[in-house]
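Re: the request from the purification team.
They wanted to know what the chain is likely to look like in 3D before they choose a buffer screen. I agreed to run a prediction and write the result into the notebook, where they can find it.
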Amino acid sequence: MKRPYRLVQVGTGGMGQRWCETFLPPHVEAGNLEVVGAVDVNPDALFKTRHHLGLDEEECFTDASEAFSELDADCCTVVVPPEFHEDIVDAAVTHDLHILSEKPIADSLEASVRIAEKVEAAGLKMGVTMSHRFRDDITTLRRRIRSPDSGPVDYVVGRLLCSYREHGAWGGGTFRHEMEHPLLVDGAVHHLDLLADMAGGTCDRLYAESWLPAWGAFADDGQALVTMHFDNGTRVTYEGALTNASALNCWGDEYIRAECRDATLVLSEHELERHGFEIDTAGEGQGDSIAMDTQKFWAHEWLIEQFVHWLDGADAMATNVQDNLQSMALVETAIQSGNTGEPLNPQTVLADAKCAVDV
């Protein structure tokens, strides 16, 4: 019987608290992981989560490098603000630790490329928790798109429509109202990722427009329209909005429609329906209802399970750091396209970032 992987939790406040209280315990109970230490710059955050992890005071640190030096660990999480990810990864690589990180990889595409290259050069494994791609509704839709009953996918439409126009209305503090490109960086990072996954190819052309209506209390653009073309011929359109009057399709209730040869699949407000070719006269809401798939873990907990299996020797998890550079490139390309008003190739944007890092 194999021993559990020894893990250091880096970040115990905010989202890190959810890792300590909800995401990690099932895997500790199953014997997959043993949390041997925790790190947070805020001693109060460490104290609040110690009992969820079963840690003693001497197993808690305010400095990641010190924790990695003192503790006997196999891997670590990275659940801190993106601008600090590279520092934590550097310390983890120095101490030969595998890494499971919250999205995004880092706060810029170039920093993300540097991280991916450092991890690869060290022969380590790093996964990124693109949790929305692995929700039950998104997974159920993706599996139906790939079913032979649907036929090839032609195009996919997705939208996130929220009403966060007042300062601080987007939960978790006010930082999203004060950051650059809040919709693209902290919203579309998930949606472009999962829509590209449904398209099943590599994006070779992306055009984006982003803006901020006068009634939105954001420091930067809160609305965006994005179109993507993939090398397999599939198209994707995305509508993202943070300042609408009504939250018709906000987080967890997104609208996604996949137009396939033999079926139209419509997901909205966590309900999925299928329209077959023979019933092409039926309107939305009149197709066949599709029950959500069931399994033990979803989202973060499923991704932790995938990471453990990868450490066990299974194939790399789908959101490994190298593959996840594609998602970072989509966001960066959308930002650049919005600034220039021109369609761009995300593969060129990614290649340029790699060249800049290598210089």
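For the purification team: The chain has two domains: 5-124, 133-295.
Please add any questions underneath this entry.
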